[in-house]
């Protein structure tokens, strides 16, 4: 591939509801650019963007892929993404490194859940965007109706730039209302605007000119004076309006058949911005911000935004923001302060990698076998440390307990799980000590399901999954005192120990406090650790229902010893048994994890969501409105939230989102304790 200068580059993310045609459109653009001699189909599993075996099998995109396309003197890096919330991590990675977004809307369905979701993410970064009303060839396709749904859902000025010629089975091409030309069929053959569309095109053109003049003083004067704007002026003006986010051009196409695709690719190159002229990073030593020019001569900054791992090595996808990254060089990973050796760089095109000598400011590349670098970290010159802002990932909300299927799986499971997290920071795993389960968390059931398949396919580890047990804890609510005597003096060596202790609750999060209040040497100090050891042996396994004991203080107050039979083991036993009895008499309770939950839904579902939270023992903390959506924050016990994603989907027809994290532990209401204890007993048997 030839070299491109920064201003010739375009980084664009394709966003949409699942199935609106992103992957097929990517394929068609590649075909139109001349590098493919036929277009693959998602159903046939042979597209450039869906190259992962899991994607081929499911016939849908599961991860963000980068597809570099050379287009009329520009290089367009297309980032094709999955369209559902489960893969929000992939979407966030892609959005972080692009300069513009192209939204695909199905011409029949109009705006859908996934459109709203991803539109919100693009808002977070104020991304300039264009919309394409896609699948214009479908039965019941309607450009006007789809356009209408856009205006209803989003707060922006939608300006048609490409109008469809015909629709459904008679969809024949598109009219570019700036160039005032028609482009027919998949070849985009230039033609005159059909006579019967003249009025419609004229009207659209007036809208375009107004939108173009709006953000440019010079153009607005010209426009108000009634002068004609040139095509160049319209393009310049539209670029400015687009960057401001107020104006969103609307195009149309049938990605699968290629109709409108050439005109669309032209518009990506003409209207979406080139990489910004500079970037701001931070010098970690001085903590001062530094502005670096987006040109090859500036000091290097590059952000690794995606990592894929297989047993043979890792691939790091990065975007260079300033300077240039060279093949066979050495750079600094400023996050971990390690030198990183850079091997052969490449331009990614789906699963293919086209080797390049260097990747300049604004461009995206991929490199294999980095030793120290994870997603979100910055590579820079060794003598010029600068850190770029990382990528914010949401906290995982859907957990399963995973257990190895066989012994061999058991040995490999931890490493494989860690690899998964490296690839996708919206996974998390840990060993939950209180339930002794390995917990894998992700963004939803499909996400976690794919993780488990990946474990098997990539790392040869088979796991069984289950709903996780709730990690309860045990504690006490009042003081108790207990004296326990352990005595075994029949035959052989005897054992004797007597311990008096006081047990009381302490502040949450204190853990375990152990004090020695023995006066006058009734038991010698050497047995102090023995008694503690005995008590600690109970802390992990609990007294009530097998859960860890927390937030208590034990003071040993008195005791008795025997000159011969008192020994370490005797005091351990006395400590342990005395503690158990003291615990049961100190008002023991179970504590359960409480989550802070934020649910975002379209207004009309608010009542149902509140009712549902109510049945989950939820306590509503606040309500808010944003962009026509309602936001509820509540605290809800984890025990009631384990499969919330499925319920929320059902209640809101998939239009609800939520986040949650454990924030505290509270007493399990007394009427539920027996159930938990009984379950624990049953488990034990
Ligand atoms: N009729 C029609 N079908 C399309 C078009 N583009 C994609 N499709 C079909 O829609 C489905 C989803 O397409 P895909 O590219 O995987 O969508 P993605 O999830 O946005 O990547 C596939 O069955 C495609 O064949 C189009 O322009 N017209
Ligand atoms: Mg796709």
What is the count of β-strands?
36
What's the pLDDT, averaged over the residues?
Answer: 93
Number of helices: 16
Instruction: Kindly report the CATH topology of the largest domain.
Output: Rossmann fold
CA radius of gyration is 32 Å
Separation, N- and C-terminal Cα atoms: 66 Å
Strand order of the largest sheet: 18-17-23-14-15-22-19-20
- Helix proportion: 25-40%
CATH architecture of the largest domain: 3-Layer(aba) Sandwich
What ligands does this structure carry? Answer: guanosine-5'-diphosphate, magnesium ion
- Provide the low-confidence segments as ranges: none
**Multimeric state:** single chain
State the CATH superfamily name of the largest domain. P-loop containing nucleotide triphosphate hydrolases
Note the beta-strand portion: 25-35%
> What would the principal axes of the Cα set say about the shape?
elongated
Q: Domains counted in the coordinates: how many?
A: 5
Keywords:
alpha+beta, Alpha-Beta Plaits, 685 residues, 16 helices, binds magnesium ion, Rossmann fold, 8-stranded antiparallel beta sheet, Elongation Factor Tu (Ef-tu), domain 3
Ordered list of secondary-structure elements with their pairings:
Layout: E1 9-16, H1 22-33, H2 53-58, E2 65-71, E3 74-80, H3 88-96, E4 100-106, H4 113-124, E5 129-134, H5 143-153, E6 157-160, E7 162-165, E8 173-176, E9 181-184, E10 189-191, H6 198-214, H7 217-224, H8 231-244, E11 247-252, H9 261-271, E12 278-283, E13 288-293, E14 301-310, E15 313-322, E16 324-326, E17 329-333, E18 338-342, E19 345-349, E20 352-356, E21 358-360, E22 364-368, E23 378-380, E24 398-404, H10 407-423, E25 428-432, E26 437-442, H11 445-459, E27 463-466, E28 473-476, E29 480-488, E30 495-505, E31 512-516, H12 528-539, E32 552-560, H13 568-584, E33 588-602, H14 606-615, E34 619-626, E35 629-637, H15 644-652, E36 657-667, H16 670-684
Parallel strand pairs: 1-3, 1-4, 4-5, 5-11, 6-11, 31-32
Antiparallel strand pairs: 2-3, 7-8, 8-9, 9-10, 12-13, 14-15, 14-23, 15-22, 16-21, 17-18, 17-23, 19-20, 19-22, 24-26, 24-27, 25-26, 28-33, 29-30, 30-32, 33-35, 33-36, 34-35
Helix pairs in contact: 6-7, 6-8, 10-11, 12-13
